[in-house]
Amino acid sequence: MNKEKKDLEAKMNGIFDNNDLDVIIMPVFPGPSFKAVNSQKYTNANTYCSIWNLVEFPAGVIPVTDVLKEESENPKYEDSYNDGMTAAIRDDLADSQGMPIGI
To answer: N or C end of the chain: which has fewer CB within 10 A?
Structure first.
């Protein structure tokens, strides 16, 4: 497995080098800070950034905004999946005014 990991690291380095990339800005999480009771519903959310851990690239999280009052009072979050994670995000938006949303 270590050989496959090193091969993937080399491939990712090649992608960066061949495309003159220095940084990728992307979401680290698909919603607001989550409530502890909903943590089990976010088990797949780590896929947003797990590749960077695997290939040992440095990463950081920068909160870019906070949940707004109107988002917190009447959460209307929708996506094309309408699954357990969608419901958890909607629930986490409720009463969460001022909580950070990161990229």
So the answer is: N
Q: Specify whether the CB–CB gap between 29 and 71 falls below 8 A.
A: no
Dihedral of the CA atoms 39, 45, 51, 56 (nearest 10)? -30
What total number of domains does the chain contain? 1
- Which domain does 48 fall in, by range? 2-102
pLDDT, averaged in runs of 10, over the chain (103 residues): 93 96 85 85 78 89 86 87 88 90 68
Q: How many CB atoms lie within 10 A of CB 25?
A: 7
Q: 63: Cβ–Cβ under 8 A, 6 or more apart, which residues?
A: 100, 101, 102
Alpha helical stretches, state H, the chain: 2-18, 50-54, 69-73, 84-93
DSSP state of 90: H
- pTM comes to 0.65
Coil, strand or helix at 65: strand
